[in-house]
Sequence to fold (82 residues):
Amino acid sequence: MQVTIPKETAQFLKSEVTAGHVDSADDIVMQGIELYQLRQQYIEDRIQQGIDDVAAGRTSPSNQAFMDDIKRGALRKIAAKK
Fold:
């Protein structure tokens, strides 16, 4: 896989390596991917927590329609991954 990055970003990567903040530009890219994965996992965990709360009845009646909508969306997302 090849990825094209803007010239300014390439210059930033080079300056970080030159300054000794990282060993290589690849390290920065991998850190970015790891952060992205952590964020995605956090979002999925929060969605699951919401689904579990709805299933356990831990919602207020005024928010039930909203929670049902979130649950349907989350279930669609989970089903699409399978």
Remarks:
- DSSP finds three helices and no strands in the chain.
- The longest helix spans residues 25-55.
- The chain has a mean pLDDT of 91.
